[in-house]
From TrEMBL:
<keyword id="KW-0413">Isomerase</keyword>
<keyword id="KW-0496">Mitochondrion</keyword>
<dbReference type="GO" id="GO:0006264">
    <property type="term" value="P:mitochondrial DNA replication"/>
</dbReference>
<keyword id="KW-0472">Membrane</keyword>
<keyword id="KW-0378">Hydrolase</keyword>
<protein>
    <recommendedName>
        <fullName>DNA 5'-3' helicase</fullName>
        <ecNumber>5.6.2.3</ecNumber>
    </recommendedName>
</protein>
<dbReference type="Pfam" id="PF13481">
    <property type="entry name" value="AAA_25"/>
</dbReference>
<feature type="region of interest" description="Disordered">
    <location>
        <begin position="593"/>
        <end position="620"/>
    </location>
</feature>
<dbReference type="GO" id="GO:0016787">
    <property type="term" value="F:hydrolase activity"/>
</dbReference>
<keyword id="KW-0999">Mitochondrion inner membrane</keyword>
<dbReference type="InterPro" id="IPR027032">
    <property type="entry name" value="Twinkle-like"/>
</dbReference>
<keyword id="KW-1135">Mitochondrion nucleoid</keyword>
<keyword id="KW-0446">Lipid-binding</keyword>
<dbReference type="InterPro" id="IPR027417">
    <property type="entry name" value="P-loop_NTPase"/>
</dbReference>
<dbReference type="GO" id="GO:0043139">
    <property type="term" value="F:5'-3' DNA helicase activity"/>
</dbReference>
<feature type="domain" description="SF4 helicase">
    <location>
        <begin position="345"/>
        <end position="598"/>
    </location>
</feature>
<dbReference type="GO" id="GO:0008289">
    <property type="term" value="F:lipid binding"/>
</dbReference>
Length: 620
């Protein structure tokens, strides 16, 4: 309860268990709409004419009463989320259906109170910023130079600054970049700080505003960059395309900004050379429609614009490559991919754990699109370990979705918080707020399922979250909680049912380029024997389909000096196998590997028994 209250967890009504909850800075509860592009089309056809855009269905808005011009409604093809360019109302597909009069309710109007609320919050933000700031372009040249440097922004020409309606507060500590919606109306600001804290979108990302260069270029092309400095560097270079700064950088691409990008036929993604940026480019392209996306390949010759302002930007943009390959392709088309894979071998190997260097040695890193299965005796610490392994990755920006069916989310969050802190929380309650604030910033989402669930329902929630939050790592603890029987499954035995679940997650991981970690209990085995890949419960499917198999082995029961360790029993990426000793720090609930001094290493090597000397034993 303490955790619930202090984590500001929203109270979730129980009308449906099909919810995903973000219990951190964004406390919105997202219900999972049961929609597909086909079902949306079918409903729309019965009511009105519509166009099919790259990411949305677009139709005139007959619902909004105060139209500035011809207002249009944009309906996301994947989630059914709608947004009106006139009154700015936005909501879930079910609400839209209700407004169309398709459901039980006969209401045919958008709820006026929500429209007023949205308009009011936009107006308040715009007034607030206008009243408390002046245009950056009004500064004298010397002062402008000084201010740009203070904000660590590229030094751009006065004529480039003149094209933007950027505003500066009186103290010259905050800058406000205008965000426009699809109708080129300013609907908010992106606020940056001279103290370099995290940028803020005002009033909310739900207004769908993006930062676009001015004046608009007639060409239907836009270059998408992750940061304001990149935006300014390209603006200064007068590239021949529109420039758009993504509101959340490479962290995620919100569905609310997709309508604002509908008008571009060609999008060039220039997101940078980091692993995260590289993955984001592929994910975002899928969301934006791969066929209209080109990518600036991450090579050393293509740094982000603000990192090397002397690069030939125009040449780099003209060499951007399509991300989409036809079903049949040739090596000539793949050549650029192969080259950049080889050039970025370290990044291709995945995100490295900070806490588990031995895992990096064996597995090389955590890669998208793979399936990891972890097993171990009951109570051996599977959840505790996976919690820390996923926390480590989330701290490094891996967007993570947890499905904890066995233990409550609040308890899991408490474990993670303690692992992040490294000390017992109950003895340090005075530090709680600071820690919780830090934890809230992590891209971790929790599914609110508890107890037995049908695989279909879970998969829908996982697919939805992956689209909306750009999830890169899904953890299911544990698979046995999806074995509940539906009518069609009654004839299948438990092994077959589990195989079907593993198969579903395998396909999901590959299709969505998302890493899935499944916790699976072992079969009943003799306690004095080590577990092996064939000890995993179910048929052979789990170990066959998995890219990585991790087993927690507990030798403490069979040997006086025996330890607990994690065995990598399968590793499809490099083939290396090995073990990592798990030394438990109860105060931190952590298995974090200690960095040993040379002397300690020497004395350990001479004293460990054969079963445990394998601290970082890699078998190639
Ligand atoms: N090496 C360890 N030594 C002592 N206690 C541990 C160790 N690892 C985990 N624990 C504690 O043991 C308890 C059970 O751990 P955990 O829930 O992670 O195990 P599990 O394998 O996931 O369990 P289950 O099989 O029930 O799913 C927790 O309270 C955890 O803090």
């Amino acid at each position: 309860m303490l955790c619930l209250r202090l984590f500001k967890m929203p109270i979730v009504k129980t009308w449906s268990c099909r919810k995903i909850k973000r219990n951190m800075n964004d406390i919105a509860v997202e219900s999972i709409p049961e929609v597909s592009a086909t079902s949306i089309k079918k409903t729309l056809r019965n009511h009105t004419s519509f166009e099919e855009g790259h990411t949305c269905f677009i139709m005139p808005c007959n619902l909004c009463t105060r139209k500035p011009k011809v207002a249009r409604i944009y309906i996301n093809k994947t989630t059914g989320m709608f947004m009106c360019s006139g009154c700015k109302i936005t909501g879930q597909w079910q609400t839209f259906e209700t407004m169309l009069g398709n459901k039980r309710s006969r209401a045919k109007k958008a709820p006026q109170d929500s429209i007023e609320e949205i308009e009011e919050s936009i107006k308040r933000t715009l007034d607030d910023v206008t009243n408390n700031t002046t245009f950056l372009r009004l500064l004298e040249e010397d002062r402008l130079l000084y201010t740009l440097k203070k904000f660590k922004l590229p030094v751009i020409t006065k004529s480039a600054v003149d094209t933007l309606d950027v505003r500066l507060n009186e103290k010259e500590t905050q800058m406000f970049f205008p965000l426009e919606n699809i109708e080129s109306e300013v609907v908010g600001y992106r606020k940056i700080n001279s103290a370099h804290s995290i940028d803020e979108t005002l009033p909310t990302i739900k207004c769908g505003g993006i930062l676009i260069s001015k004046p608009p270029k007639h060409k239907d092309t836009a270059v998408l960059v992750p940061n304001i400095p990149d935006f300014l560097a390209l603006l200064n270079a007068k590239v021949n395309s529109n420039i758009v700064c993504l509101p959340n950088g490479v962290s995620n691409l919100s569905q609310y900004v997709l309508p604002s990008l509908e008008k571009y036929k060609k999008l060039i993604l220039w997101l940078g050379n980091e692993t995260k940026a590289w993955e984001a480019a592929r994910d975002f392209a899928r969301k934006l429609g791969e066929k209209r996306c080109l990518i600036v390949r991450p090579t050393d010759a293509h740094k982000l614009p603000h990192l090397a302002e002397s690069q030939d930007f125009k040449a780099i943009l003209s060499e951007a490559q399509p991300i989409w390959h036809k079903s049949i392709t040739t090596f000539a088309n793949l050549r650029a991919d192969v080259y950049s894979d080889l050039l970025n071998i370290d990044k291709v190997q995945g995100v490295k754990w900070k806490r588990f260097p031995t895992l990096n040695k064996i597995l090389k890193g955590h890669r998208r699109g793979e399936l990891t299965v972890i097993t171990g005796p009951t109570g051996s610490g599977k959840t505790t370990f996976i919690s820390e392994y996923s926390l480590d990755l989330a701290v490094q920006g891996v967007n993570t979705l947890w499905g904890s069916f066995e233990i409550r989310n609040a308890r899991l969050a408490k474990t993670m918080l303690q692992q992040m802190a490294g000390f017992p929380l109950d003895e340090n309650l005075h530090l709680f707020d600071d820690l919780a604030n830090e934890f809230e910033k992590l891209p971790i989402y929790f599914m609110t399922f508890h107890g037995q669930q049908a695989i279909k329902v879970v998969m829908e929630a996982v697919e939805h979250a992956t689209y909306v939050y750009d999830i890169g790592h899904v953890i299911i603890d544990n698979v046995q909680f999806m074995m509940g029987m539906t009518e069609e499954q009654k004839h299948l035995d438990r092994f077959w049912r589990q195989d079907a679940i593993v198969q579903a997650f395998r396909q999901f991981a590959t299709r969505k380029n998302c890493h899935v970690t499944l916790v699976i209990h072992p079969r009943k085995e003799r306690e004095d024997e080590d577990l092996t890949t064939s000890s995993i419960f179910g048929g052979a499917k789990a170990s066959q389909e998995a890219d990585n198999v991790l087993i927690i082995q507990d030798r403490r029961l069979t040997s006086t000096k025996g330890k607990k360790y994690l065995q990598v029993a399968k590793n499809r990426y490099s083939g290396d196998l090995g073990v990592m000793t798990l030394e438990f720090n109860k105060a931190a609930l952590s298995y974090q590997q200690k960095t040993k001094t040379k002397e300690k290493k020497k004395s350990d090597e001479s004293s460990t028994d054969s079963s445990t000397q394998d601290e970082s034993n890699v078998i190639s």
